[in-house]
Amino acid sequence: MSYDLVKTGIADRLEILGYTESEQSVDFKNAPANEYGNTFILQALSGAMDADNSETIVDRFYDMQNWQVKIAFDKSAQSDVINRDDLHRKKDVILADLDKPANWTSFVRILKYKSWEVTEFPNYFILTINIAIIDQYIY
Fold first, then answer.
1. Which CATH number covers residue 60?
2. What is the pLDDT of residue 123?
3. Backbone dihedral angles phi then psi of residue 92, each to the nearest 5 degrees
């Protein structure tokens, strides 16, 4: 497979859930407030050879990749609890979508949710979801 195929596959899943890709590539520090709750940042963080392969020459290998999705959510003094609750409800929907094999078997061998984290900033929350992917390369 390839980077573009994996990125497009994950992005398509998030777009089906109502999110669009942010113009920001790393974080939401310079993002306008209208992106909060509506956009995502998707990054390929790292990869490594699948340790299950033997030392024999084969026509394919499996790349264990770490990807990260970030979504910013609005925060205000009047509605922090409401916005945080909304963030967690949306997180649950995203995780359920990513957990369903029918949603990703067309573009990766395995996709597994690894962890999520909420980070608080003065004007917004960031939901970070870490995903493990096993991609198959054939040559």
1. 3.30.2000.10
2. 84
3. -60, -40
Domain that holds residue 120: 3-138
For the chain, what is the domain count?
1
Fill in the amino acid letter for 84.
Answer: R
Show the beta-strand stretches assigned E in the chain: 20-21, 39-49, 60-74, 110-120, 124-138
Q: In what order do the strands lie in the sheet with 110-120?
A: 20-21, 39-49, 60-74, 124-138, 110-120
Q: How far apart are CA 10 and CA 51, in angstroms?
A: 24
The confidence score (pLDDT) of residue 19 equals 94
Per residue in 6-47, pLDDT (tens digit) is 999 999 999 999 999 988 778 888 888 878 888 999 999 987
Contacts of 69 (CB under 8 A, 6+ apart): 10, 14, 40, 41, 42, 94, 128, 129, 131
Residue 90, pLDDT > 90, answer yes
Q: Given this model, what pLDDT does residue 51 score?
A: 57
